[in-house]
Amino acid sequence: MSRGTTAIINLAHLKHNYTLLKKQAPNKLVLVIKADAYGHGIKRVIQTLGTVDCYAVATIEEALLIRRYNQEVKILLLEGFLDANELETAFENNFDCVIHQIEQIKLLQTIASSKTMNIWSKLDSGMNRLGFNTEQFQSAIKILEKHPNVQDIILMSHFASADDNTNTLTQKQTEMFLQIDKAYPTYQQSLSNTSALLNHKNLKDEWCRVGLALFGVSPIANKQAQDFGLKPVMTLKTNIIAIKNIGVNQGIGYSHAYVSTKPMKIAIIGIGYGDGYPWNLTCKASVKVNGIPAQIVGRVSMDMLAIDVSTINNLKVGDSVLVWGQDKKSELPLETVASHAQTIPYVLLCQITSRVHYNYV
Ligand SMILES: Cc1ncc(COP(=O)(O)O)c(C=O)c1O
User: Which residues line ligand 1 (CB under 6 A)?
Assistant: First the structure.
């Protein structure tokens, strides 16, 4: 019997989501696969999807990893280059770069390269994270247009609240972007993320940058991926490692955070915060055993946690437990687990630790 804590990555679902998003996107897709493809494993993701319109990542190391397996695909660095070494590496490896601040333009002016690069010039339309203000943006474009090493210029911005379609900020950001975009009718644009593509279908940008939806997860509150025809790519499972019967008035686990009010049967399962399972789900969520929900009782420990299996018959040590995703008997959406943990699905995917096994099917 093994602890069996495994992330099962369904590559058919990945392909399904990619095909669906490709149909829904008004034009081309940038697949955002930073942070090890949102915890799914960047190598297997790119081997499965092959050469697409474009991949995007946050760090130069992630970009180099993609380039090692695919010499031809377009790769976008979402934060661009941060020093001269990174700029040189970007030129050598034919990476597209986001430029969002004057310091990057200055660096670009010092470089002596015979190669050219595509630049995605980023406007801060209200997110107040990366990006030029309007004035800087216009002067940046003037410099980039004349720069001998700049090939194509793409205009981009990023939404702060596109997951909430009652929030007027998305409309304001779009208007601000389109107002500036008018001055550059020949340049392509990139505006949408997953939420914008699913929630704001009227945008017609050439390059939609989608991450979470590719992995079959919805960023939109009260909506699950299935509502959009997407299929969850990751299923997280573990095994029962012990079963015991306890009497009434018994505390379970650290600090006795749960005390039994009746005799009960509990199972100890092989997942804890050391695997990335949220500690704050203590007594607040369920897993599924044989398709039946089983409530977490007591604190989540580093390596294990206890669940109430009083009503579930014929259990034995080694039986499989669904933590999130789908198995043959049932499903437990990641979006639901994230909402119980008062976090977002992105966090749960990215915080899975290296001791969890990966099984690609
Ligand atoms: C600049 C940028 N574009 C696109 C995305 C993709 O977002 P999502 O995973 O919500 O589609 C991200 C993700 O953080 C991002 O930082």
Answer: 32, 78, 158, 193-195, 209-212, 219
What local confidence, expressed as pLDDT, does residue 222 receive?
86
Express each pLDDT in 89-127 by its tens digit.
999 999 999 999 999 999 999 988 889 999 999 999 999
Alpha-carbon gap, residue 315 to 222, rounded angstroms: 33
**Count of other CB atoms within 10 angstroms of residue 88:** 15
d(C-alpha 296, C-alpha 192), whole Å: 38
Average pLDDT for residues 316-325, to the nearest whole number?
Answer: 98
Residue 331, φ and ψ in degrees, nearest 5: -140, 155
The alpha carbon of 148 and the centre of ligand 1 are apart by a number of angstroms equal to 30
**Please, which residues have CB within 8 angstroms of residue 266's CB and are 6 or more apart in sequence?**
243, 244, 245, 246, 252, 297, 306, 307, 308, 309, 310
pTM recorded for the entire structure:
0.96
Cα–ligand 1 centroid distance for 220 (angstroms): 14
The rounded distance, in Å, linking the Cα atoms of 127 and 343 is 20
CB of 324 within 8 A of CB of 298? no
Q: What pLDDT, in 10s, does the model give residues 197-218? A: 999 878 889 999 999 999 999 9
Ligand 1 pocket test, pick from 24, 32, 55 with the greatest ligand atom count within 8 Å of Cβ, gives 32
Mean pLDDT of the chain: 96
Domains of the chain, earliest start first: 11-218 (3.20.20.10), 234-360 (2.40.37.10)
State phi, psi for 65 to the nearest 5 degrees: -65, -45
